[in-house]
Amino acid sequence: MNITLRIWRQPGPGRPGHMVTHRVDDISPDMSFLEVLDVLNQRLTAAGEDPVAFDSDCREGICGMCGLVINGIAHGPQASVTTCQLHMRSFADGDVIDVEPWRAGPFPVLKDLVVDRSALDRIIQAGGYISIPTGSAPEAHSILVPKDDAEDAFDAATCIGCGACVAACPNGSAALFLGAKITHLGLLPQGQPERDSRALAMIARHDAEGFGGCSQIGECTAVCPKDIQLEVISRCHRDVVTALFHHGEQQEGPPEDQTGGNLASGPAGD
Amino acid sequence: MAVTGLIMVLFLLVHMYGNLKLFYGQAEFDDYAYHLRTMGQPYLPYSGGLWIIRVVLLVSVLTHIASAFTLWARSRRATGGRGGGRYQSTRARRGVQRSYSSFTMRWGGVTIALFVVYHLLHLTTDTIHPGGVSSSAYVRTVNGFEIWWVVLSYTVALIAIGFHLRHGFWAALASLGANTSRRRRRHLNALAVAVAVVITVGFLVPPYTVLFGGITA
Ligand code: HEM
Ligand code: SF4
Ligand code: SF4
Ligand code: FES
């Protein structure tokens, strides 16, 4: 296959960037999208030019590093896959393909296609600890979890923190990511002791990072490589509203930011 | 946003139902307008009940608009002011799955707000009187809707309201935590379409009946 890539090139943070056209000939339809960028980079390097900066790690769809906006769609035209799992057979010979970084206020572009997604990590951090015994593995039957809850919690836990939901959201909201994290622990017995404070602290951090507010448009779930469902946003709002009610009853000050207080495992991303 | 929106939807349903009394003739309709003012008496003074509703509606409208501005400002900050159009690529401008209604929320909202002002000047305060001045709400309404451009302006507004409610009703329920499964999501979306259609069509039936001579003053 021969294709033409129009790639966002930007020399550094805050610097102006623009779309640059690169031709890539003789590629196989079985190559992944990232392998095509590898091929392009080898040729650019051999020609003494600056290679295209992009992120990747596992290349098997589980780490969440590799987000690219391809033809205007986060993670490209194929549903339910990450960019590393998108193959060139999804395109036609001779295609011109637009490749851009995630765009959102809280995700500054570092170089070319690489953005800083640590705002998502700070939301996780704000969630803080959960009170569970660590050390030797607990007896598996000591905590009972209803089957449906276990499944829903597990579905939510598959969120890999890639940030495609933010990239696709017309409001630049991370509501789907936040909802996945809140749902994941909120449905499990282990998540109950800190359920209220976690919901309040995480949504406060989400807003403080500069993400937009959700207006239930649903673009996020349509591009999510892990098919995180829109109901996690409703579940998150339920937890926040419930927490506010409890909070009113207790007459306390606002919950303290639990950043840095990771005693046991936090609501980890992957 | 959600709570105030739902209050206004409730008002619209009652208002739409009330308008259908136009079919019962002048006496019944004006009597209804009179009862709006005497409801709650003698606990409340004349017009007291109506004023309570007006205050609730006004507070809802203002809160709704203030929330919309807050959301809009946050959205602008998070997307460099470009929303869904922030990518260079023009190939997915309409998104992957979003509804047409979801694009029309902001300008639709502005259209509706302007309409409400026009409508209040027309039928509540009688300041604009395309069909002639009258102290009878029935006569004001019927005379107004005998004019094609009045009906046209109401039609445009109600279509805007229909789109606004199609997305707004669904979003309000989802934001309040009602969307808990795929099935629920299908039902909530269907409900939103139904509410939007009922309100748009229900409001438009009287004006068109007047226009085509089915109701006369
Ligand atoms: C064809 C459609 C409509 C008709 C025939 C109609 C008719 C009327 C009439 C006759 C009144 C005056 C009632 C009175 O003073 O006794 C009124 C008031 C009002 N209408 Fe409508 N209306 C329509 C659509 C709408 C829509 C779509 C909205 C909102 C978006 C709306 C909002 C209001 C409000 C806020 C008032 C003022 C209530 C008050 O404070 O007295 N109307 N309408
Ligand atoms: S919710 Fe989906 S799109 Fe968003 S960060 Fe998680 S895996 Fe990525
Ligand atoms: S539902 Fe829509 S508005 Fe909400 S986070 Fe997803 S894409 Fe953004
Ligand atoms: S590189 Fe890990 S998900 Fe794509």
Notes on the protein architecture:
The complex is a heterodimer of chains A (270) and B (217). Chain A is of the alpha+beta class and 270 residues long. Chain A has two domains: 3-111, Ubiquitin-like (UB roll) (Roll), CATH 3.10.20.30; 117-131 and 144-252, Alpha-helical ferredoxin (Fumarate Reductase Iron-sulfur Protein, Chain B, domain 2, Orthogonal Bundle). Chain A is built from eight helices and seven strands. Chain A has helices at residues 33-46, 118-127, 147-157, 164-168, 175-186, 195-208, 219-223, 231-250, and strands spanning 3-9, 18-24, 69-70, 73-74, 96-100, 109-111, 114-115. In chain A, the strands form two sheets. In chain A, strands 2-1-5-3-4 form a five-stranded mixed beta sheet. Chain A has a two-stranded antiparallel ribbon with strand order 6-7. In chain A, helix 2 packs antiparallel against helix 6, helix 5 (175-186) packs antiparallel against helix 6 and helix 6 packs across helix 8 (231-250). Chain B has one domain. In chain B, 71% of the residues lie in helices and 0% in strands. Chain B has helices at 2-19, 26-38, 48-79, 100-103, 105-124, 137-145, 148-175, 182-211. Chain B starts with a helix and ends in a 6-residue tail after the last helix. Classes of the chains: A alpha+beta (270), B mainly alpha (217). The A-B interface holds A 6, 8, 19, 69, 71-73, 98, 100, 103-106, 168, 170-173, 207, 210-219, 222-223, 229-231, 233-235, 237-238, 241 and B 70-71, 74-75, 77-80, 83-84, 86-93, 95-99, 102, 105, 167, 170-171, 174-182, 184-185. Protoporphyrin IX containing FE (HEM) binds next to helix 1, helix 2, helix 3, helix 5 and helix 6 of chain B. Chain A: Its cofactor is [2Fe-2S] cluster; [3Fe-4S] cluster. Chain A: Belongs to the succinate dehydrogenase/fumarate reductase iron-sulfur protein family. Chain A: Keywords: Iron, Iron-sulfur, Metal-binding.
